[in-house]
Amino acid sequence: MRPIASGSLRMAIELSWRTARSVALLGATLMATVAASTGAVAQALKDIRTPDTPLVLESRGSFFVGGDVVQQSFVELGSKVPADQITVNQMYVEYMIPATGKGIPVVMIHGSTLSGKTYDTTPDGRMGWYEYFVRRGHPVYVPDQVGRGRSGFNQAIFNNVAQGIVPPAQQPRLTRLADRVGVWKNMRFGPNYPETYPNERFPVEAIAELSKQDIPDFNLAVPTPNPTFKALSDLAIQVKGAVLLGHSQSGAFPMQAALVNPAAIKGFLLIEPGNCGTYTPEQIAILARIPALVVFGDHTDAPTGIESLPFLWRDALASCKAFIAQINAAHGNASLLSPAELGPGNSHMIMQDKNNLEVADRMLDWLDRNVKAKK
Amino acid sequence: MRPIASGSLRMAIELSWRTARSVALLGATLMATVAASTGAVAQALKDIRTPDTPLVLESRGSFFVGGDVVQQSFVELGSKVPADQITVNQMYVEYMIPATGKGIPVVMIHGSTLSGKTYDTTPDGRMGWYEYFVRRGHPVYVPDQVGRGRSGFNQAIFNNVAQGIVPPAQQPRLTRLADRVGVWKNMRFGPNYPETYPNERFPVEAIAELSKQDIPDFNLAVPTPNPTFKALSDLAIQVKGAVLLGHSQSGAFPMQAALVNPAAIKGFLLIEPGNCGTYTPEQIAILARIPALVVFGDHTDAPTGIESLPFLWRDALASCKAFIAQINAAHGNASLLSPAELGPGNSHMIMQDKNNLEVADRMLDWLDRNVKAKK
């Protein structure tokens, strides 16, 4: 049972935001005066809306899962400290546990070129899924993938290249998405920058704030298999059972984690996976024991503008439909929350779209019906 | 006025931890069983102590300050998306605002090779300064420096080097501290790994968890002046007045931010700055208008084991004493919270030492006496 009825909490939050709007407008005027006198003030903080009700947490904090201790040379460590050991491949996790509610823990993993920030305050200042799921009674754990954000990465090869010890061609590329094609077109805000789709749900006026979430992606530099898979499986064990939520690049990470050890993984929430993956019959038998909900937005047939992946989302949706069919053929429980159910216009960044909390409500209802809580 | 008496809250938290210890021991037994059956479970989460009282927040979230939009080539973006614009030099900030209390906002900036994680849950699972200051009625803002963690960095030169467009020798070194010299000896846990100082305050049994906080440092790659300086000054303006707390590498960042624009900077908390900096008389006149507390731990005369900085902390303390004298000579208000006042054994990582909340209480008392709250 949830502690608070879904619709009423969402409505309270939204009403509070409407009330806050007039206050924010006054604040904006004041800030404009400050800006004029100082030259440059960023736009983000004043646009963040304060919820109507306080957030009451039993606890919150951060920790790491996994990590390998390795010995590195003076050069590999950056030519400052002597040869010594460091830790690499650890996964940073932040979390909040609500004071009330007995929901199952949810782990939210971000996608390519992004960090755990994905699930926090949206680019236009609304509440993200991280806090919303906590307010709905779920402990929520938000990692940075190994190689990204506060998890760090193994810098050895970069320093060896700079020192002439390793040829530059061996240095892994660091990928970015960039604003107009990699984000705008590929994430389906519109057919081409700056055109938007009719009824587009992403807050496109705040694209500059989304651009700030984009950071270099080291996935071509992390070991194989990606240490994040085992870290997610270990995290689920540590919290004594969790639903794993993946997005885009990490859309199939929940399945990869379950193939390391499925024991503590109680559900899959798969938000626009880049690909749901292909599995052997033995692997499908393992995965079919875990309920799965796949969520896709609108305009998946549109071209991405990325040469190597021209119809990424059309192909991704097809791969996920095939995955759902395989799971269900093995007597599993997999389903698709489709664009038609959500109404038109959801982008690839569903957790930041204007109806993000409505979509969250659908996912929370699915959890209630399909995934047993811890106690 | 503070909402809760300092000593009593700290005592309540500490008592709660003692009570939690027996529960934790039971938990540890259960986890050991799980670990035996799965092969490898990280040690961190089960060691985190749950506070006795819930944390009640008016709001929390994250946003970015600053950022420059730049055009980059196909190669610079990682050879995946076409030439396009991205944002670099933005500063990620997470924050919590307590539901009660009218304390002045505090911005906590981390040091070299670390991230905002510095001020959160300690390596041995105790509460960090981030949450403690919030529980004592202060809104707290925790950035990642530009070039670190969720702030990201400009990857263009790395991809240009990999592609053979820029010579490898031009690629900036990425520095790490490493466990035995850069951390153990240099951060003054003991004279040489694994010896500890008598009465050492750092929880050395948890050094593996501190090692996981250490990530590659891009400070040799960020522009000059470091964009974090202006971002901190802008952040103080956005929150309408803040105390800036720096540590180690960022120990002089609060002064650098004030030299960009001192208007909204209401105090300096300088935790073991690597150097307090040298300033012109005109600059000292600006800085002397802002109250400053410098905090140093013990064993500052010990050698660091780092060749280029053999007596870093002895020299750092000397530079900060000179800074304090200059500020006071200019009719300012600067003082030193010294090792003798704290009792022996504090390390360079004071915010994670076993008496971290006692030290926080001293700093909070200083804020009460020396810095006017917002309202």
Number of separate helices of chain A: 11
Report strand order across the widest sheet of chain A.
Answer: 1-2-4-3-5-6-7-8
Mean pLDDT over the residues of chain A: 90
Gyration radius of chain A, rounded: 21 Å
Terminal Cα span of chain A = 11 Å
Describe this entry's structure for a reader:
Two copies of one chain form a homodimer. An eight-stranded mixed β-sheet of chain A has the order 1-2-4-3-5-6-7-8, sandwiched between helices. The first copy, chain A, is globular, with a radius of gyration of 21 Å. The first copy, chain A, has two domains: 1-54, no CATH class; 56-66 and 91-152 and 166-370, 3-Layer(aba) Sandwich (Rossmann fold), CATH 3.40.50. In chain A, strand 3, helix 2 and strand 4 form a beta-alpha-beta unit. In chain A, 34% of the residues lie in helices and 16% in strands. The first copy, chain A, is α/β, with parallel strands linked by helices and 375 residues long. The interface between A and B is large, with 101 and 101 residues. Strand 1 of chain A pairs antiparallel with strand 1 (55-72) of chain B, so a sheet runs across the interface.
